[in-house]
Amino acid sequence: MLQITTLVHDLILTELWREEIYPELMKQSPKSTFGIYTILYHEAACINLIETILYHPNAAETLGDASLDLIDYCFRSLNLMLTRYSPISYFYFEFLISYLFTFS
Predict the structure, then answer these.
(1) What is the spatial distance between Cα 79 and Cα 35, in angstroms, rounded to a whole number?
(2) Is 46 within 8 Å of 52 (Cβ atoms)?
(3) How many C-beta atoms surround the C-beta of residue 46 within 10 A?
(4) CA 42 – CA 13 distance, rounded (Å)
(5) Considering the entire predicted model, what is its pTM?
(6) What is the rounded distance in angstroms from the CA atom of residue 63 to the CA atom of residue 51?
(7) C-alpha angle 58-66-13 in degrees, rounded to nearest 5
(8) pLDDT per residue of the chain (104 residues) written in tens, 0 to 9
(9) Which residues, other chains included, contact 82 with Cβ-Cβ below 8 Å and sequence gap of 6+?
């Protein structure tokens, strides 16, 4: 199940591209945005494929150390969504996360 870890690695690289290179490309006003769209779509396709694969218990077991990277990616994505696109403040988000981990 080496392919699952490769998918997680590819997901992290695509996120890094979105955070670092995408803003620089958008500053230049590209004539065609289809190439940029395909890379952003690739991130969504990777996360959906990982979600579908992880419904199988054996796949979740073979994820190994890449599970920490996947959890970290999910935490960063949720943090970005709540702090940038929502009126909920970051402090409320930290409280919510600490509250959830006290009962696990």
Answers:
(1) 27
(2) no
(3) 20
(4) 11
(5) 0.73
(6) 12
(7) 130
(8) 558 889 999 999 999 988 888 888 878 877 877 777 888 888 888 988 988 888 888 888 888 888 889 888 888 888 777 777 666 555 666 666 666 666 54
(9) 88, 90, 93
Domain ranges, residue 93: 2-102
* Separation CA 76–CA 28 (nearest Å): 27
Phi-psi region of 29 (alpha: psi -120 to 50; beta: other; left: phi over 0): left
Cβ atoms of 46 and 7 within 8 Å: the answer is yes
Distance CA 40, CA 31 (A): 17
Contacts of 18 (CB under 8 A, 6+ apart): 39, 40, 43
Question: Alpha-carbon distance 22 to 15, whole Å?
Answer: 10
Q: What is the pLDDT of residue 13?
A: 93
- Overall domain count for the chain: 1
Which tokens sit at 28? 């230049």
